[in-house]
Amino acid sequence: MTEDLAPVKEEDYRQLKERMTLIADADPTQYHNEYSLKRYLRAFKTVDNAFQAILKTNKWRAEYGVVNLHENKELIEKYSNKARVLRHRDIVGRPIVYIPAKNHSSNDRSIDDLTKFIVYCLEDASKRCFEEVVDNLCIVFDLNNFTLSCMDYQVLKNLIWLLSRHYPERLGVCLIINAPVFFSGCWAVIKGWLDENTAGKVTFVNSEMDLCQYLIPDILPTDM
Description:
It comes from Euphydryas editha. Pfam families: CRAL_TRIO. Residues 72-224 form the CRAL-TRIO domain. This is CRAL-TRIO domain-containing protein. InterPro entries: CRAL-TRIO_dom, CRAL-TRIO_dom_sf, CRAL/TRIO_N_dom_sf, PITP/CRAL-TRIO. With 224 residues, the protein is of the alpha/beta class. Helices cover 44% and strands 13% of the residues. The protein is built from nine helices and five strands, in the order ααααββαβαβααβα. It has helices at 10-26, 34-44, 47-64, 73-78, 111-127, 153-165, 183-191, 196-199, 208-211, and strands spanning 84-89, 95-100, 137-142, 171-177, 202-205. A five-stranded mixed β-sheet has the order 1-2-3-4-5. α1 (10-26) packs across α2 (34-44), α2 (34-44) packs across α3 and α5 packs across α6 (153-165). The longest helix is centred in the first third of the chain and has 18 residues, at 47-64. The chain is globular and about 50 Å long. 25% of the residues are buried. The model has no long low-confidence stretch (mean pLDDT 95).
């Protein structure tokens, strides 16, 4: 079962690949595969914009030390209850990032460290994609036992920025489960930060039967 992705013009892809090949031949760390180039084209629309966005991402990855984040065992251990990339996938084969909101509080975290941990999770999940089949992710926000003190707007802003700038078109679906009624106020704020395309990928799941349309509920952790 594959997804219906917005088509990319072959000529646009050819031009972008040509430009990137010149750069990657000189510096192999700049390389992006076919699926990545097409994601940038879908997100940034034109060859020029996609090219500039890729260069900015490559610069950011180098400066942020993305490839070495998995070696930061202390960071990973410290924030391991905030999010987890699951061993299982959703029903179309997407890797799943599970986020239990009850474990979040803006009072007990370093925004810089938690953002690094989020990047680590996005990297881990992205590497698990079977890109020939599906090259995007399922993010699950579990709002069970959620209170307003768990609402960390700055972390969400950072996640949205990362997904839009450096992981474009990586979000396949965002499931919000067990949402309390009062979360609608928070969602009104968050939705204002999302473009129409991203907002359309957010789904509130109100029952286990609805959840089964996306994933098998038993795969969600009970130990976080």
